[in-house]
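User: Working on a comparison across species. This one is ATP-binding cassette, sub-family C (CFTR/MRP), member 3 from Dicentrarchus labrax. Can you predict its structure so I can line it up against the others?
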Amino acid sequence: KKPLDMHAIRGMLSASLLFPMCCVSLQVANQTLHTDRPDLPECFQLSVLSWLPCIYLWAVFPIYLFYLKKNNRGYIMMSIMNRFKTAFGLLLWIVCWTDLFYTFHELRQGHSQPPIYFVTPLVLGMTMLLATFLIQFERLRGVQSSGVLFIFWFLSVLCAIVPFRSKILQSEVTDKLRFTTFYFYFSMLVCELILCCFNERPPLFSNVNPCPETTAGFLSTMTFWWFTSMAIKGYKIPLEAKDLWTLNQRDSSKVAVPKLLKEWEKEQAKAKRYLFFSFLNDDPEEVEVLLSNKKAAPRQPSFLRALIRAFGPYFLIGSAFKVLQDVVTFVNPQLLRMLILFTKQKGVPDWWGYSLAFLMFFTAFLQTLILHHHFQYCFVTGMNVRTAVIGAIYRKALVITNAAKRSSTVGEVVNLMSVDAQRFMDLTTFLNMLWSAPLQIILALYFLWQNLGPSVMAGVAVMIMLIPFNAVIAMKTRAYQVEQMQYKDSRIKLMNEILNGIKVLKLYAWENSFKEKVLAIRQKELNVLRKTAYLGALSTMAWTSAPFLVALTTFAVYVTVDENNILDAEKAFVSLSLFNILRFPLNMLPQVISSIVQASVSLKRIQNFLSHDELDPNSVDRKNIATEFSLTVVNGKFSWAKEDPPVLHNINVMVPQGSLLAVVGHVGCGKSSLISALLGEMEKLEGEVSIRGSVAYVPQQAWIQNATLRDNILFGKPYNEQKYRCVLEACALTPDLEVLPGGDMTEIGEKGINLSGGQRQRVSLARALYSDTDVYLLDDPLSAVDAHVAKHIFDNLIGPEGALKGKTRILVTHGISFLPQVDNIMVMVDGRVSEMGSYQELLNQNGAFAEFLRNYALEDIIEEDEATDELIEDEELFPDDALSNHIDMVDNEPGINEAKRNFIRQISIISADGENPRARSVRRHGCSQRKHSEQPEKKKPQETEKLIQAETAETGRVKAKVYLEYAMAVGPLLSVFICFLYGCQSAASIGANIWLSEWTNDASKNQTQENVPMRVGVYAALGIAQGILVMMSSFTLAMGNIGAAKKLHYNLLTNKLHTPQSFFDTTPIGRIINRFSKDIYVIDEALPATVLMLLGTAFMSLSTMIVIVSSTPIFLVVIVPLALIYIFVQRFYVATSRQLKRLESVSRSPIYSHFSETVTGCSVIRAYGRHSAFVLMSDMRVDDNQKSYYPGIVSNRWLGVRIEFIGNCIVLFAALFAVTGKENLNPGLVGLSVSYALQVTMSLNWMVRMTSDLENNIVAVERVKEYSETKTEAPWEVEDKKPPPEWPMEGNVAFQDYSVRYREGLDLVLKKLTLNVKGGEKIGIVGRTGAGKSSMTLCLFRLLEAAAGDITIDEVKISEIGLHDLRSKLTIIPQEPVLFSGTLRMNLDPFESYTDEEVWKALQHSHLHKFVSNQPAKLELECSEGGENLSVGQRQLVCLARALLRKTRILILDEATAAIDLETDDLIQSTIRTQFEDCTVFTIAHRLNTIMDYTRVLVLDKGQIAEFDTPTNLLSQRGIFYGMAKDAGLTQ
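Assistant: Here's the predicted structure for ATP-binding cassette, sub-family C (CFTR/MRP), member 3 from Dicentrarchus labrax:
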């Protein structure tokens, strides 16, 4: 049995073929193989070895030449290195031909040499010339480092080493010249190889911070060495966006998107052609049917085909790598077989073993490189697909029709971009498994069959049985996931409500009831998680035990089927390593198939979206030059969608150049639709529309981008200081800029969140004015602003004397006062133009317009008068310091003194509570209430800078403390026990394999038969024990994790409900919600999975080391340096990849927010013709995101190559030491240690990935901990200070020298208040905004804790008792009515402490009885989030009903601002008068008439008591109160 003789036979064959050329007698194979100093025959050296590199280079040359012709990167200057390369190439050519001429010379001398001496130098010389030519040609084509030549020089050196050694071994030198030329030749080759490792300088042009990949050498590209610079940088300092490389041209949107769109357009054209031909062939009736039923269109353009055409070729390179890798995978088990055979044979030369060990190392290394390049290609393809899909969707979203927009909401489209594009990306990485898995399975089975014969089928049967088992588990798990998502969503929704209404919960002392609700949902969620964990434990068991079960059945069957079947080391361990190869594809197949199914759904969705109809760019003729009219519509008929009924009929409009046309009409008569039609946003059913010149458009709802104020106005036009100032002035924006924190460079939040409605509208107008176009379409721009501002804007901007005079303007308006000043008026009724003409003409016609005027004019005129009267009356009332910080209007009429201007600023509070249509109805209530209506919230903008602290993002390493904390949350004992279980499991697995190696050694002792049952039995027992232990350990781990998750969430929730109100005022709710959603999700799901994998791989790696060390103890020497390298690489990787992940997720959200912004404003973008600019902006954002994603992919490849190299070293040393210790080792142990080593690479790789993931995920624990330990408020109940249950009896309230501030370091809000209120008194509290009215109520409830002094209620100091004891004894009807989602009953009485009768009685008194009893659900009426399904008035009444139910001795009524309707207010007042007669009532009043009959009125001013007496006395004192009453028109 000498399988190793294959080499020799091959050698003999080739030698005999070349026999005529060499004329050298055949040496016996034994001389080559069975000596300790092997050597190859000279003939073989001269022929095969010399020709191999040449054959390679000539074979590759044509393909490579073609590639170089296609790809030109610009040429590289001649460098010293290049000159040397060329010189060496020419020298090599000379050397080779020297040999040739020498042979000719010898021939003339009469020494005839065999033909090989002519052929080889000739071939070599030609090849060297070719190589030299390539060196220069590559330089001209900008190739910096050539893989083709590197492989050529490498092969040449490799093949030259053999003759090099032979020549040294020769005792005396016969042929002096050839001896010299050969050494010369060899040294040149080595020089070329070394030079080839270095890079040429880059071609002449290149970009900023380019990715070193493009300039990297061949070796560097193969091993991803070029990434090292970033890994080092990321280790030294946390990476930032500026450290990232620019994207490769190939991956940028500029290249990827057009590539896909081009293919997609081809597809669409094809589909259209197909449809067209089918029409030609069919009879007319069928065509009718086809047209009427759009779904019947037979062929949709296929998005998949477009994708494949665009990105297929690149992806195929990756697939080619995969084929190679699949084949190379199976080399190592064969080498293992030879190695085991080698250890069995005695008296075989050692160099066999060493060459086998190195071969194993080499194939493993090759496999690593090939695999990672395959992944690289796949991931890059995935990335390009994502870029292209996002780009295509974005471009499409800008041009789809309104009908199409209806069918897919913004949210859905954003989902297409985020979720569906992501799915494609994930799929590309696995797509190759679809064919590669079956290939691997077939190959593995083939080799197994060779090894063990038909018994393999038993093992395969077990594997196939496990597939449905895994599939069922996967199905179940998915179902549980869906269920758990639902619980999670409802929990987050509830948390959101709790945090939004936290103030109300505190005021009512309801926290406990809501805490129970959250915990109930959380419990359900954890139950589902627990079920998932059971399933997870089962599937982990299946996954770990599968190879073992398969091996067990196969071996058992093999041994029992036939007496003569002997299980020896070679068979057993080769089979084991093949089974391990099988394990991966079998498990991957189901996953790939399911992700293909998901991706196909996504594909369909994207395809449907991209097939939507687009707006017809030619529906509006922009070329019109002929007429003097700058805008004409002839017989226009328009609808919103082709199938909808038309909205506008028979429209005929002609607008002369430079005139101002006003469009008026009732609500919903089609004014805005007309504007849309002019913009080409509607479907034109018939008629002609033409516009001369460019267009500016101001929509009814201002559209503001998330950018600076200045960018919003410039909108892509260049900045011109003077023009810009004029625009701001005309739009009355100058005073606003003084207030905004950063002037015109203020960042405006999403949807213009930090501007008031009026400011937004004015910015929109400023954008139109700055764009300086020919035609202006203004859709009701004056509705959102105040009357004064509207006048200012009309006069300075739109009107006959405004900045736009001479331009064509179309103004949709509701304001009557401007109509006399316009050129023409067009009156619309029900989508038709009813009349058109100048103001006078229309008045004289006495038609629809006159009617319209009569309806509106009255209120408008009254309003105007009233405003002016008030201005004159109230001037003296306002001290100069009363500046509010909403400067919304400025009067430009001369002669207004300072006081009046201040007053105007004061009055601008209107803009705060009413830059909205409602403000009109409020105007009648006079001015007083407006002055006080500004809620305390409005004081915030000044503080915001310091108010909301930036969220701290942890950088750098996670503290060990956090890991400890998590272990403590799991439970210290449990943690130790889990590790113990994992240890046991590894021990069982090692035991089983050692037992197997013992079993195989029976073969050499010839005592197989009698032991078989015992061997099989113990093997089975150990394996099954391992399976059970795996299950137990993963299960215990899951239980521990769930326990920890429960504990962490409970602590977080409890702490958040105990947190003082000030925390919620300074922390954005989103940040707190994030802790409850994202971080808790990580703790629930991501962390356990990571910990499971980490423990599994760590113990796997550990057991490998143990096995190798126990079989060859010398291995310990190698472990230390390898472990050091490992830790080193791991540290670099973790630091860099963590930061890259952070950067990637930070740069991802701008893509989506920019997108949803674009979709909402697409009509504005189109009107201004900024389509392509926005596409560019989106592309930039996507590129920014990919810029951090790409290094993230490469970092994984970089890590993989390095870690697997360490794994390959382990294989090498395990094999080497097995060879050196051959004498003392039995084949079983060799098989054991090497087959373990072959598995270890995967574990090592995953271990690093998991450590990195663990670091990323454990941060969640840190963040949750941080919020579970914030400062809490006073205890809810103080046992020894509990007030008596019937307290307060009287309802006396006393303030004693009481002062309070909102937060540490802020000024006092109330200063030394002292007052006494007797039980049953009714106290009104009035005062200007910021006087401290609301603070007083908050103090009673201790939402604000005293800074000095105290409050006593019925002789009990409220600062000493528990918060719940206090709060449950007071009742408040708050300003904004807050309802929670749930039943009405729950909203009234969350603790279920009242009977149904009492609840109904409360409803009766609060006038809700009728409404509720009419509802089918009665008290179980579901309130939606925030009580959206009740009107504001009804919500206010529900709050009243709550108060009536509690019926405590002290009632605080924070009267709602002007927003609420008067009717409800009167209901509430009358109820309070009747139902709370004997209670102490404090009312914070905005409308003085409600408190005119109260016992006493408290007037606060700047936190101090200004006046406190009965209303009549205060009026006669003629102080502040009198002034307020006079404003309200209550006194003369």
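For your comparison, note: Confidence is low (pLDDT under 50) at residues 1-20, 22-28, 290-297, 858-950.

User: Helpful, thanks.
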